[in-house]
Amino acid sequence: MAAARKRNTSSRTTKRGRVPAEYSSPACLLHEVEAIDRTANAPDVRIKRIYDEPQSVDGLRVLVDRLWPRGIRRQRAAIDIWAQDLAPSAQLRQWFQHDPNRWHAFRNRYRKELQEKAADLEALRERSRAQRLTLLYTAKDQVFNHAAVLMEILRQR
User: Coil, helix or strand for 82?
Assistant: First the structure.
């Protein structure tokens, strides 16, 4: 009579989720690895001020301001794409003036403006699944700015 093999049911956690220590069959192995690979396709989007030095870890650098930043030469900016159309309208930008008290209303109004740019957003989202995407902005406020809203939207499924 063959001795029953004790199955190791412990698991370990990696960046991509829980991975069983042992698989019950080759079919289970393929199924569980496919589940891990689906999470690897999540958008990798970050934000950064254009005045900060470019780094190799930035990936695709996208300037998301309507106006070119003061005092920055194109060569130093090292941008790959200038997505002016994804920036807030001039009226919305002037109304907001980076006032934290207007942040909630600004987010809602900016999201409504971006609904008209769904194709552009989806194109950026697809690129962010293939490589890291760094949204560049000029605002001094690193919390209350349009790039943070855009990052939220791009990370949503």
Answer: strand
* Phi (first) and psi of residue 13, to 5 degrees: -110, 130
- Gap between the Cα atoms of 59 and 86, Å rounded: 19
Helix or strand (DSSP H, E) at 29 = helix 26-40
Six-digit token pair at 50?
């254009």
Asked if residue 115 lies in contact with residue 121, where contact means CB atoms within 8 angstroms, the answer is: no
As a whole number of angstroms, the distance between CA 136 and CA 124 comes to: 13
By percentage, how much of the chain surpasses pLDDT 90? 57
Instruction: List all residues 6 or more positions away from 69 whose beta carbon is below 8 Å from its beta carbon.
Output: 50, 51, 63, 77, 138
- pLDDT confidence tier of residue 141, bands split at 50, 70 and 90: confident
Find the angle CA(141)-CA(147)-CA(149) to the nearest 5 degrees.
Answer: 105
